[in-house]
């Protein structure tokens, strides 16, 4: 006896097809979003590189008091714009769960001093005091992510300076607990600003919120800064909170878990180099591969300020042709260029070097590609170091110093440290 049964699965197949289409549509939307964010970041960073670069150069010249104050305002505004771009990108990465922390050796006291220096001009122009009180127990060096910690502090100090009209902003740093090599450091940022209403405080660390609408109109901002700071602090094993009363100022405080280190952080200031290394830096044969004419002028001026000279190539093809004529020590390579981009040019250079054992030209990516994974892509392409635009003289000096030091010990790609900023 044969028994047969049938079932109509048309509806199930239709639902499966719709689910697959929805999944593909979601993946495509995510890809387009990431591509859009990368393009926006690149297009903003490219002109911002000229603004930041030329402003730094001008501030190091003879200026009247009025000119210096105006340029300082330009510098402050450009840094605020860069912070805005970074906030949007960081929020996107945090939302996607793609943020990764680094483990680097750094000096927390020096880091606090660096962040305070960033806001010293703004505080001086407003007539408010900006000070730090660091407990003696906070000594030596630690292991953690200095860039992300600096980002949290910058947001809190920047807000404190922005909202404080008179009085002072004080940053306090102390050790909350220490056990073996583990140390929890506590930071607080106190201001004498207007304070925050009690009802608004629970929402401060939520995205796209500020204390009230009038504050948004007066001071601007995306409302992402504190949400990103809170998320970063949680990633670093800590907590963040606020104490505030209207008319009595505000105190934002947080902790982060770090590891104590025994080795000092690597100093990369050019002033730390012995005279022989400084002479080596100035003797470097440098090629600048950059298609943007304005950014060519910025980089050449910055290099000149450091005592260096460079030839210019407007794309990857010109860089390869120049390398056939001159035995360059170092190439500052833009990634997005017409005809041949920096990735392809680097691949061609490395391919040619494989036929010449012992020959290695240091290639440093100097690019507006600053999304998550761009640094890794540059290194995977064969570049030795990475520098995201906008580029300051100080950061350019750091990568050049690293190149000189690496060349003095080992010229292999693995010997050159990656730019972490």
Fold and architecture overview:
- The N and C termini lie far apart (78 Å).
- 31% of the residues are buried.
- The protein is globular.
- Helix 1 crosses helix 8 (293-305) and helix 7 (275-283) crosses helix 12.
- 48% of the residues lie in helices and 18% in strands.
- It has 2 domains: 104-261, Heat Shock Protein 90; 270-415, Response regulator (Rossmann fold).
- The longest helix has 50 residues, at 10-59.
- With 421 residues, it is an alpha/beta fold.
- It has 12 helices and 12 strands.
- The strands form 2 sheets. Strands 1, 2, 3, 4, 5, 6 and 7 form a 7-stranded mixed β-sheet that branches. A 5-stranded parallel β-sheet has the order 9-8-10-11-12, with helices on both faces.
- Residues 213-219, 268-272 and 409-421 have low confidence and may be disordered.
The helix-strand sequence is HHEHEEHEEHHEEHEHEHEHEHEH
User: Which class do the helix and strand fractions yield?
Assistant: alpha/beta
The quaternary state of the protein chains shown equals: single chain
Helix content: 40-55%
Major β-sheet annotation: 7 strands, mixed
Average residue-wise pLDDT: 83
Q: How does the overall form come out from the CA principal axes?
A: globular
Query: What would CATH call the architecture of the largest domain?
Result: 2-Layer Sandwich
User: Tally the helices: what do you get?
Assistant: 12
Distance between the termini: 78 Å
Strand content: 15-25%
Annotate the secondary structure layout:
Blueprint: H1 10-59, H2 65-95, E1 104-106, H3 108-126, E2 129-134, E3 141-144, H4 146-163, E4 168-179, E5 182-191, H5 213-219, H6 225-235, E6 240-244, E7 250-261, H7 275-283, E8 286-289, H8 293-305, E9 310-313, H9 316-325, E10 330-333, H10 342-353, E11 362-367, H11 374-380, E12 385-388, H12 393-409
Parallel strand pairs: 2-4, 8-9, 8-10, 10-11, 11-12
Antiparallel strand pairs: 1-3, 3-7, 4-5, 5-7, 6-7
Helix pairs in contact: 1-2, 1-8, 2-3, 2-6, 3-4, 4-6, 7-12, 9-10
């Amino acid at each position: 006896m044969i028994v047969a049964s049938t079932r109509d699965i048309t509806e199930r197949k239709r639902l499966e097809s719709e689910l697959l289409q929805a999944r593909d549509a979601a993946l495509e939307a995510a890809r387009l979003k990431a591509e859009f964010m990368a393009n926006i970041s690149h297009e903003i960073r490219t002109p911002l590189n000229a603004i930041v670069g030329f402003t730094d150069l001008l501030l190091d010249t003879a200026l009247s008091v009025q000119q210096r104050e105006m340029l300082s305002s330009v510098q402050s505004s450009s840094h605020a714009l860069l912070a805005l771009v970074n906030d949007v990108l960081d929020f996107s990465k945090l939302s996607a769960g793609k943020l990764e922390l680094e483990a680097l050796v750094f000096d927390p006291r020096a880091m606090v001093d660096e962040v305070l220096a960033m806001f010293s001009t703004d505080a001086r122009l407003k007539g408010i005091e900006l000070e730090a009180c660091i407990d003696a127990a906070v000594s030596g060096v630690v292991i953690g992510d200095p860039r992300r910690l600096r980002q949290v502090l910058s947001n809190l100090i920047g807000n404190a300076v922005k909202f404080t009209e008179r009085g002072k902003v004080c940053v306090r740093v102390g050790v909350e607990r220490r056990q073996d090599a583990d140390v929890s450091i506590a930071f607080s940022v106190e201001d004498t600003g207007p304070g925050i209403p009690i009802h608004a405080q629970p929402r401060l660390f939520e995205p796209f919120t500020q204390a009230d609408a009038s504050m948004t109109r007066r001071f601007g901002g995306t409302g992402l800064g504190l949400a990103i700071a809170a998320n970063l602090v949680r990633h670093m094993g800590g907590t963040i909170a606020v104490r505030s009363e209207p008319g009595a100022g505000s105190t934002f405080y947080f902790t982060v878990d770090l590891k104590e280190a025994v080795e000092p952080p690597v100093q990369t200031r050019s002033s730390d180099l012995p005279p022989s290394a400084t002479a080596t830096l100035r003797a470097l044969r440098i090629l600048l591969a950059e298609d943007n004419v304005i950014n060519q002028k910025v980089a050449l001026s910055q290099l000149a300020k450091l005592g260096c000279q460079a030839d210019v190539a407007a794309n990857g093809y010109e860089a390869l042709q120049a390398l056939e004529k001159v035995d360059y020590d170092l190439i500052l390579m833009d990634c997005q260029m017409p005809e041949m981009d920096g990735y392809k040019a680097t691949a061609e250079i490395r391919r040619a070097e494989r036929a010449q054992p012992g020959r290695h030209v240091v290639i440093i990516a100097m690019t507006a590609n600053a999304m998550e994974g761009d640094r890794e892509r540059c290194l995977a392409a064969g570049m030795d170091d990475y520098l995201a635009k906008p580029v300051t003289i100080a950061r350019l000096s750091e990568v050049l110093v690293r190149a000189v030091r690496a060349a003095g010990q080992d010229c292999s790609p693995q010997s050159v440290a990656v730019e972490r900023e």
